[in-house]
Amino acid sequence: MSLYNFLEWLATTPASIALHESRYLYLVVLTVHVLTLFLFVGAIILQSLRLLGFGLTGVATSSLLRRLRPWTLAGFAVMVTSGSLLFFAAPVDKFVNFFFRAKLLLIFLAGVNVFFFNRTIYRQIETWDLATRPPRAARLAGSISLILWAGVITAGRMIPYQAYWFN
Amino acid sequence: MSLLEIFYAVEYSPLLIAMRSSPWLFPVIATIHLFGLAMIGGAVLAFDLRLLGTGLKNQSPRELARQTYPLLLTGIAVMLVTGPFLFMCFATKYYYLAAFWIKLAAFIVVLSLTLAVRRRLKDTDDDRLVLAWRKPLATTSLLLWFTVALGGRLIGFP
């Protein structure tokens, strides 16, 4: 069974149809997804700006990252849960949507960015923890993060406009 | 001229008619509006969570007010530039929506509150008032910003 067949089957499950056709529940989930931007991307912006040396420069980088980690992870959990429900409500439509695919790719790349940041320059955090302007590799990770999450927001906002852009 | 007539004139002005002939302009501006939401989110959360005694606990509220001020102002500027364009695209629809008026009122109140609190902490030595009221202030601020964001989402629904 291909992924497409699986998603076609998923779309016919009663729960998926119920969510898709619900009067309010779908809109509630969508609202939660959008409003969690405030928490999740808000926390990411603070951390990225610190890595760039643009904001909160009076705070030690390691302290900022550590203090905001639980909030970021909580925001991410809400995002993934609500996002999965939105996908589940219309799996085939989302699967064939260009912006949805772009969004997934960008989120994956943002994860890769964090992975490499943790494995490389963050290993030597003691040497630049208090630096107003962190080293180039850290600034690069910060800029990549800002660009990718701006891309994720853009792609997400464009998902319902697929027809305008491609027809 | 009634308010509704003014909204109508705005929505059907030549500029706005030209703007709407391009179907992607609204979602693009709405996307930038969301960037503003995230920026304000960062600046507001860093400060309000601190007032509630969590988050960036090693810093003083004054320090955070000072250090997140540029981000806060940038977010507000992004909102104030993009918001009116979004409004003008559907002015007469919003006229009839309670969520729009609630959002507008909450925004004016929370903007004044946020700027007043930040400026007092940032520019004066007197932080007693803010610190004495820190929990109600942070809760009110978060609730009002939530109302603004929620109102923004609700007015977009068909």
Description:
The complex is a heterodimer of chains A (167) and B (158). Chain A is an all-alpha fold. Chain A has ten helices and no strands. Chain A has one domain (3-166). In chain A, helix 3 runs antiparallel to helix 5, helix 4 (37-52) packs antiparallel against helix 5 (61-89) and helix 4 packs antiparallel against helix 9 (136-158). Chain B has one domain (3-153). In chain B, helix 4 crosses helix 7. The interface between A and B is large, with 35 and 36 residues.
What is the distance, rounded to the nearest whole angstrom, between the alpha carbons of the first and last residues of chain B?
A: 28 Å
Q: Please count the beta strands of chain A (DSSP E, at least 2 residues each).
A: 0
Structure annotation, total helices of chain A: 10
Radius of gyration of chain A, CA atoms, in whole angstroms: 19 Å
What oligomeric state best describes the polypeptide chains here? heterodimer
Summarize the structure.
The complex is a heterodimer of chains A (167) and B (158). Helices cover 79% and strands 0% of the residues of chain A.
Keywords:
heterodimer; A: 167 residues; mainly alpha; 10 helices; elongated; B: 158 residues; 9 helices
Strand and helix map with partners:
The complex is a heterodimer of chains A (167) and B (158).
Chain A: H1 3-11, H2 14-21, H3 25-35, H4 37-52, H5 61-89, H6 91-95, H7 98-119, H8 125-128, H9 136-158, H10 162-166
Helix pairs in contact in A: 2-5, 3-5, 4-5, 4-9, 7-9
Chain B: H1 3-11, H2 14-20, H3 25-51, H4 61-67, H5 69-89, H6 91-95, H7 98-123, H8 128-132, H9 134-154
